[in-house]
Amino acid sequence: MKKKLVCIVCPMGCLLDVEVENDYAVTGNQCKRGIGYAKKELTNPTRTVTSTVKIKGSIHDRLPVKTDKEVSKNKVFEVMKILDSVIVTSPIKVGTIIVENIFGDNVNIVASRSM
Amino acid sequence: MKEYDVVIVGGGSAGLAAAIEIYKNGIDNILLIVRDQELGGILLQCIHNGFGLKVFKEELTGPEYAERFVDQLKEINIDLRLESVVTAIHPDKRIEYVNSKEGFVTVKAKAIVLTMGCYERNSGAISIPGNRPAGVLTAGTAQKYLNIDGYLVGKRVFILGSGDIGLIMARRMTLEGAKVLGVAEILPFSGGLKRNIVQCLEDYDIPLYLSHTITEIIGDNNLQKIKVSKVDNFKVIPGTEMEFEIDTLLLSIGLIPENEISERAGIILDPKTRGPIVDETYQTNIEGIFACGNVLHVHDLVDFVTEESRRAGKNVAKYVKNQEVNKNEITHLKSNKGISYIVPQTIHFDNLEEKTEFFLRVTSEFKNVELVIKGDQEEIRRIKKRHMAPAEMEKVILTKASLKAYKIISIEVA
Ligand SMILES: Cc1cc2nc3c(=O)[nH]c(=O)nc-3n(C[C@H](O)[C@H](O)[C@H](O)COP(=O)(O)OP(=O)(O)OC[C@H]3O[C@@H](n4cnc5c(N)ncnc54)[C@H](O)[C@@H]3O)c2cc1C
Ligand code: SF4
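# iron/sulfur cluster complex -> structure
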């Protein structure tokens, strides 16, 4: 079975042809990251989640945050739910862990700017 | 009147990179004037990731990318004015700005760098019949409300235009609990990056209606409904109408370089880019006034903005040190078949470094074609391209040796 995918690892957006039965052999990739992406996307797709949390005592009301590793695609809304109730207080440095180990798999929510 | 070597207008990724590069090249009498209350520009509201793959070899969010440059800027000693608006620049390189502390101020510079970024086309720029109720706003405005102020503008959303900001906002609002009913694009191909179609629309089953447009906006005070129809070559096809009940319509229909003060100063703009016409040093038609970043032409990747602004910064420092006008012969870049623009638009052959980078955009979608570069009709180079689209800026690097002293360099799709 052949699958067509757009690689989303970088802005090149290569069109990949993936032979699923042939251990996810890839053509159309312009670099080797496309190979890893194809297999992962067709077996366990993951995404980085970026959003904001409430911050007190700063020039803005929202602090941008992100997951420091990718999480399983079907857990994206769970991450959003966790963020709903988070409130932090300024000052916060970029990279500070805001919520530790969210799913017990070493993924943290970190601040994506200082504020 | 206070005198500076260089005055930079704008503190986004272009202004920051230019300031740091000018300083590194030995010029320290610099003033940076920024309208916003902080440095970083548009990146601060782009909280998604995807920035920095080229410059830092890692994937950063917009605020993280900006912060790396803001940190570098804090280490160098230059004058900074925040919450200050430049109201005019003059060919003799006087700059007028205004802020609440100092009032109206005029300063003088040996060189000026324009990095004012761009603005979004809004509903005034398109002609949709019907009312203009509350609930119609640009995607970037909605992005600022949501990401900076924490305010979700609506619950049932439709997006007109498939530019990247609209795609990013389709995902962002979905994550925050809104229902995004679709994205309509009048052209037969998307105006945004393919990766954003996948990770912002397909991931959340948001339909993309290509060759579709909004034919009517309905609602008295508040937006209630829109009508969307299929088009063939910009003509509405009867009988294809769909209705969507929504409270919010986001417009993602293009970005335009912010050149009001440039034009008033007498800087000549390229009708295609809507940014200044520049040479290989990023100098405009007015000697000593330079431009880089989105004010020059709209970039889709901040990494390219940074690289371009660093090159501009180097040339600005050189100009300030030598104060010499380039009187060498000019070569013009010509956009032929399939090319909508090339930046820089002119070059001085004698002044070229070993390699020169040109940025260009194509006029429509192309598959398996070649970019053909010619000097006065003579073929210089051919570059194979599997896929090109107007949404994706192309970079072409040409060596000085290959360019010789041609009068016109042309690029076309074949
Ligand atoms: C909404 C949006 C989403 C984007 N998403 C991505 C992405 O996902 N990935 C990516 O790589 N790139 C993305 N980009 C592109 C990239 O972020 C921009 O191209 C880049 O940041 C532009 O930098 P700039 O410095 O030219 O302009 P800006 O960041 O817009 O900075 C303009 C600066 O000029 C100042 N200014 C303007 N007028 C005046 C005046 N009269 N007086 C004083 N100051 C003034 C402003 O205050 C600001 O500091 C996006 C761009 C936009 C607009
Ligand atoms: S295959 Fe490589 S070059 Fe192509 S999109 Fe993926 S990461 Fe980018």
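# post-check
Residues 371 and 383 of chain B are 5 Å apart (CA to CA).
The longest strand of chain B covers residues 103-114.
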